Amino acid sequence: MEENRDQWGSRLGFILATIGSAVGLGNIWRFSYQAYENGGGAFLFPYIFALITAGIPLLLLEMGFGFFTRNSAPSSFRKVKEKFEWVGWWSVLVAFTVTVYYIVIIAWSLLFVFESFSLGWTADPEGFFFGEFLGFSGSAFTLGGIQWKIFFALLAVWIINYVIIAGGVEKGIEKASKIFMPLLALMVLIIVLRGVTLPGAMEGVKAFVTPDFSKILDFNIWVGAYGQIFFTLSLGFGIMIAYSSYLPKKSDVVKNGIIAGLANSIFSIVVGFGVFGVLGYMAQQQGVEIADVATSGIGLAFIAFPKAINLLPGLPQLFGFAFFFSLTIAGLSSSISLIESVVSSLIDNFSLSRKKAVTLVSIVGFILGVPMVTQGGLAILDIVDHFVNIFGLLLVGLIEMLILSYAFDLDKIKDNMNASSDLHVGNGWKAMIKFIAPVFIGIGFVQSTISELS
Ligand code: PFF
Ligand code: NA
């Protein structure tokens, strides 16, 4: 069985696929706003602290775990103790739930790629987005009125994912990552170069980076940084376990993990300059403050950016294309990893063929996504997102760390990882996993649950 397991064809392929998973919608629409709101340049202190004390250590833990067990999440946890298998299934369930709505958003991005050719979001992007595009009714209970354009885009995005994942680890995921990641880098280069050279851009960039040190004394900001690190590195979804289970025996897991972890953050910071350059330009054009135009999430991508693109001097279509195309490929390289977490678990546990497993996941995932392309779709998406934020992410990650620390032997993972790595993890790493990260993440979980519920 083991000999038949899929494998990455090259180290570069594995690193690109891992970065592809980590770099996603969140890097483009969440990080820069979070930094701006939480102290600008000063936010880098809690952010980098969280990256070093939790992000990279946990990334290495998940990678080392999958590399050690050579299995996807559920069977990996079963190897720790029979009774822990459910932790793996829980992370797979979270991955699947996120997939269902993450792919809906990729479908919107894909449609906006086409809208960008004609600036089809009109002079009133907000009205367009909620009106003609989503046909949003305002209530989760309006299941009528399928938005057919989005329906077919959703189908198309599932088919793209299906084809890539059915192709296998090396011939599908790795090959796609080798195409997507350079393309993404190119698109981001266009966005950033254009963004920072616009009139008024420097005002925006200043708002993004000017340190407000009074904010870093706020404990909540530190806890928020931990939450962001988790999502941004795709931790707690069983993805890194599955991806690393496909590594050849001789891989340098430690170095690969550190490279991927750093690349993800560098990507976020670089994109931040482009995003705030554009926001600075828009604020200047409209004669308003940066604070009046800065937002994050869906509002930034599908409303604020189209507004800004409308105002661009010279070839706004090219910029619009670069922006929505980068959202689309950043999203796709993350969605394939989410789906692979589910698919690899089905393959390992039910001896399904890869084709059968991907077919099953794609059909069920597509069907569950259909309510999200109706007139109530946005509200449903929101509810599912809240649900995942409460029961997913931090909670799974926390339990994962505690089990591997206290019901298993971290040294086994450590020694196995060190044996084939140039760089080594030591007692500092163990201390982060056993004590420091769980404390912050535990507090983060309690706090985010309270804020989600209120
Ligand atoms: N890391 C991705 C982002 O920052 O957008 C989101 C993500 C992708 C989270 C895949 C989890 C995941 F499994
Ligand atoms: Na990310």
From TrEMBL:
Coiled coil: none annotated. InterPro entries: Na/ntran_symport, SNS_sf. The keyword S-adenosyl-L-methionine does not apply. PROSITE patterns: NA_NEUROTRAN_SYMP_3 (PS50267). GO terms for cellular component: plasma membrane. Pfam families: SNF (PF00209). It is a multi-pass membrane protein. Keywords: Membrane, Transmembrane, Transmembrane helix, Transport. The chain crosses the membrane at residues 12-32, 44-68, 89-114, 146-167, 179-201, 221-246, 258-283, 318-339, 360-381, 387-408, 429-447. It is found in: Membrane. CDD domains: SLC6sbd_u1. The keyword Transmembrane applies. One of its GO terms (biological process) is sodium ion transmembrane transport. PANTHER family: BLOATED TUBULES, ISOFORM B-RELATED (PTHR11616:SF240), SODIUM/CHLORIDE DEPENDENT TRANSPORTER (PTHR11616). This is Sodium-dependent transporter.
